[in-house]
Amino acid sequence: MKMKYFSYVAIIFLACAFILFPMKSLASWAYEFVVWNGDVYVVSDEAIENVNKEIGHVTKYSDREGTYSGNFSNVYPKGTSYFSIEGVSTDEAIAIQGKDGTYMKANKDGEYAGNKYDFWNIIFSPFVAATSALLVLIGFYFYNKRRI
Asked: What is the mean pLDDT of the chain?
């Protein structure tokens, strides 16, 4: 009887965990962007030739919704280089090096909010929620088994 009750509680608890902390879905980004030094740069169609020096690179790529820390991109793979543009402040725009060696201009769009909330995304991620729920259920099981 107790095991049947335990099974119902486990199912309800896990269902609640997945409802409260849904899995991240594929994103339909409004635009292609990169994040550098905490700012979002929207990638334009404008090719750039007058690049200056390398200022950074993509440290995290993802096509899934969410907020990420570091130099994140929703289009360029990890390792893609960022460059300053001659005569243009990095507060206005930067250049992104493509696979074919061309440089695309990316215009600054403001501060990237994702860096502020990265800690909370880790704490409340679906994986952490499901793992925590499983550990609680295992604890209940052994506690009740010991009492029998």
From this structure: 79
Question: What pLDDT shows up at residue 116?
Answer: 52
d(CA 32, CA 120) in angstroms, rounded, equals 25
**94 by DSSP, 3-state: which?**
strand
Amino acid at 91: D
Distance CA 131, CA 129 (A): 6
92/136: higher pLDDT: 92
Q: In what order do the strands lie in the sheet with 33-36?
A: 51-57, 81-85, 93-97, 103-111, 39-48, 33-36, 72-73, 60-61
d(CA 69, CA 61): 11
Angle (nearest 5°) at CA 85 between 105 and 106 = 20
